[in-house]
Structures are given as C-alpha cells and as structure tokens.
Amino acid sequence: MKVISVCLGLKPDVLEYLRDQKEHPKHYIFVPLSFISEHIEVLFDNDVECRELCEEFGVTYHRPPMPNYDSRLIDALVSTIEANKNNPFISHNPEKQHLMKWINQKEKCQTSLKQC
C-alpha cells in the first residue's frame, strides 16, 4: 500500500506522479493534506480523476474521510483562535515556501546550464 499526499499547486501533480510510476502497488491511499473539508478539488480531482486512473492501473483507490465539521476539528480551531487572538498576525504558508525553494533551484539549474 502506498500513501499519496497531495499538495495544492506543486508539481508533479498527483495524476502526473501516478502516470510516471513504472510499477504500482495494489492500493493507493490519497491524503489531501492542503484541505480540511470535502470540496470540488477533493471530490473531483481525487474521487473522480484519481480513482479513474487507479482503476486504469488496476490499483484500489482509498481516501480517508475529511474532518469537515467534526466537533474535534471545530474545537481545535476555536481554541487555537482563542489562544492567539491577541498575538500579532504572522503569515505561515509552508507550501509557498516549498514552491519558492523549488523555483529558485530550477532557476539556478537553468542559469548554470546557460553558462555551459
């Protein structure tokens, strides 16, 4: 069994990743890390496109349920907001940081190739 974590906006996307694999396990578990609720990107991209591609490869598709409005999630969000409501706002976007690092590496590679 292989777990696939999905990060919105990063390449390769999950479909490209699946197509690039030489061999596939019997099961894939898709975990949309960027999301906490079921919406169009989870329901269509994962539950339709990824499921269809898995069927094409003869692989069983799995996706755990999303937290949605589970009271434990709501309580955690409320307690986090309450604990930090008087703190200064700090933007934290690890996906953007990862993407910027990848772009910088790609630019360095292209620059070094031009020099050759």
Key terms:
single chain; 116 residues; mainly alpha; 4 helices; 3 strands; 53% helix
Give an account of the 3D structure.
The chain is mainly alpha-helical and 116 residues long. It is 53% helix and 10% strand. The protein is built from four helices and three strands. Strands 1-2-3 form a three-stranded parallel beta sheet, with helices on one face. The chain is flat and about 50 Å long. The N and C termini lie far apart (43 Å).
Q: Give the uncertain stretches in residue-range form.
A: none
Sheet with the most strands, sense and barrel status: 3 strands, parallel
Order of helices and strands: EHEHEHH
Helix content: 40-55%
The proportion of residues in beta strands is 5-15%
Shape: flat
- Taking the alpha carbons of the first and last residues, their distance comes to 43 Å
Tell me how many strands there are: 3
Concise account of the structure shown:
By secondary structure, this protein is mostly helical. The chain is built from 4 helices and 3 strands; from the N terminus they run E-H-E-H-E-H-H.
Question: What's the SSE blueprint?
Answer:
Layout: E1 2-5, H1 14-20, E2 27-31, H2 40-57, E3 60-62, H3 71-84, H4 94-115
Parallel strand pairs: 1-2, 2-3
Helix pairs in contact: 1-2
